[in-house]
Amino acid sequence: MVGAGAVIAGGIILDGIFGSFFAKKEQDKFNAIALEQLPATWQLLITLRILPPKSSLIMDQERIIRQLAGNAPVFQSLLEGIPKEQYLWKPSPEKWCLLEVLCHLYDEEREDFRTRVRHVMEHPGTAPPSIDPAGWVIKRDYIGQNYEQKLDAFLEERTLSIQWLDSLENAPWQNAFPHGHFGPMSADYFLRNWLAHDYLHFRQIVRLKHQYLRSHTPQGLDYAGEW
Predict the structure, then answer these.
(1) Which domains does the chain have, with CATH numbers?
(2) Which of 114, 142, 181, 221 sits CB 3.0–4.6 Å from 100 for a disulfide?
(3) CB atoms within 10 A of CB 42
(4) What is the pLDDT of residues 87-115, one digit of tens each?
(5) Segment (H or E) for 1
(6) How far, in Å, CA of 53 to CA of 35, rounded?
(7) Nearest residue to 189 (alpha-carbon basis) of 148, 1, 91, 197
C-alpha cells in the first residue's frame, strides 16, 4: 500500500519529497555534479518538477559551515561544568571517557577535518598528512590532559575553523584526491563528514552522560522512556 502522500513516477515511488528514492546510498551519489550527469530518470523527475530543483536537494556548503559554527555552543553546553569524577568515568575499561572524547575532538578539528579540507583544495590529487585517531589516545596521553583547558582549546580551534571557512571565496569544493578504500575524497566530502562527525560525537557524549546517570541512580530511569 502506497501512502496518500506518495507519488509514482517512472516506476519509482516517491514518498513525500524524498521517500525511499533518496535512500542513503543514493544520497551519497548525489553530489555537486551537473544536471546532465545525473541518471536519466533523475533528470526527468527534476525537469517535470516531480522532484524539486537539484540545487534544493543538496545542503550547500554555506549551510554546513553555519551548522558547524552553531555546534560550538552545543559542545560547550554538553561538556562544561562536569566534575572530574564524571569526565573520567567509563562504562567499561575499553570505552572512552568524556576527557578522551574531548581530546579526540580537539585533534580532529586541527589535524583531520580542517587540515584535509584545506589540503585537497590547495593540493588536489595528493594525499593529505596521515592521522592516527585511535593511536593518539595513548600516544598523546589523553587521559592525563587538563579537561577545562582542553575544552577551551577545542572551542578556540572551532572558532579558527569557522573564520577560515568564512574567508574562502570561490572555493574549489570539488578538488579531491583518490583514496584506495573510499574512492575520490573531495573538499566537499570532508566538509560534510566534518558536520556528521559532530553529530556522531553529540550522540556519544549524550550516551556517556546517560550511562553515568543510570549507573549513579538507584531507582532506575525507566520512567524517562526507553534509551
Answers:
(1) 6-57 (no CATH), 61-224 (1.20.120.450)
(2) 142
(3) 20
(4) 999 999 999 999 999 999 999 999 999 99
(5) none
(6) 10
(7) 197
